Amino acid sequence: MSERVSFHDEIRNNKLKSLALASIMILILVGLGYVISQFYEPSLFFTFMIFAIIISIGYTLISYYNADKIALASVKASLASSTQHRQLISSVENMALASGLPIPKIYVMPSSQINAFASGRDPKHAVICVTEGTLAKLNKQELEGVIAHEMSHIANYDIRFMTFTAVVIGMISIASELFLRSLWFSSNDRDKKGNGIFMLIGIVLAILAPLLATLVSFAISRKREFAADASGAKFTRHPAGLASALKKIKHEHPSLNDKHNFPKAVAPLFISDPFKKKFTNLFSTHPNIDDRISKLERM
User: Fold this and answer.
1) Is residue 107 part of a domain?
2) Residue 283 DSSP symbol
């Protein structure tokens, strides 16, 4: 018999793992900064880092405060109708009550896939969007499971957390790019005081650091999905609803035309990978769906 899983333990463990992974991203940034600082004068190094911080934070904040509008516009979503989408609105209201959160704005997007996403910088500015396929193919318990999962992303401030990782990745990428480009204009007399060694280490780190940071961000995304599944089970007290919805998602075979409804930039927001990749790997933003179902069934 499989060992039972506590949703409280699952939530706590995945949040701790997310924080640990975020710490690794910070260490990558600090390591890159240290190596660059050994190669350049302190004033030039600080110019590098300040420039990287300003660009990264500026770009990310624009996206952060407009994430919901951008996501909704990109999937051609429209506000849910109080007459046409009564069950959806009722499910969202029930899960808002269960989670203690304000009722988010509710949208529906055109797609026959079973899928949904939440966005917004905080619970007071949150939106939930579901596909037409979700409403057509899921029963009441399954729909509430999906809505509870999305409400969990709002409750856990996942948009804010992933915005933080985007800022760090941006800083790493910009600092790496500035360092590599600056080498074209630096003098050849860099062998004094071991600068040649730091230059070589810096080049390798500048090439690898953005990739490593991106892989860590994908791992964080997978942990946040597990945490949202567990939090959703906590809100509904019925993990079988979400597990059943995920089983239906697993056995879907969306057409190529339907996949065009999902911009790649928005895909990580959804409850499951809209492009239905067969295998989960280091570059996946979503965990293996069988693992998610297994954990929910043991709760």
Assistant:
1) yes
2) T
Spot the catalytic one: 150, 225, 252, 297.
Answer: 150
- Quick: pLDDT tens for 85-141: 999 999 999 999 999 999 999 999 999 999 999 998 889 999 999 999 999 999 999
Query: pLDDT averaged over the chain?
Result: 86
User: Of 57-66, 71-80, 200-209, 273-282, which one has max mean pLDDT?
Assistant: 71-80
Do β-strands 78-79 and 105-109 pair in parallel, antiparallel, or remain unpaired?
antiparallel
227 and 18 Cβ atoms separated by less than 8 Å: yes
Cβ neighbour number for residue 107 with a 10 Å cutoff:
23
Residue 1: inside a domain: no
C-alpha distances out from residue 261 to 1, 33, 75, 95, 133, Å = 41, 40, 6, 27, 12
What is the SS3 assignment for 273? coil
Entry pTM: 0.87
User: Which run of H or of E encompasses 129?
Assistant: strand 127-131
Question: What is the extent of the structural domain holding 151?
Answer: 7-297
How many domains does one find in the chain? 1
pLDDT in tens, 36-48: 777 776 666 677 6
Say what angle helices 158-182 and 7-39 make with each other, to 10 degrees: 20
DSSP string, 91-124: HHHHHHHHHTPPPPEEEEE--SS--EEEE-SSGG
> Which range, 10-14, 80-84, 157-161, 254-258, is most confident?
80-84
Task: Clarify whether 150 is annotated catalytic.
Answer: yes
Q: What is the largest CA-CA distance in the chain?
A: 75
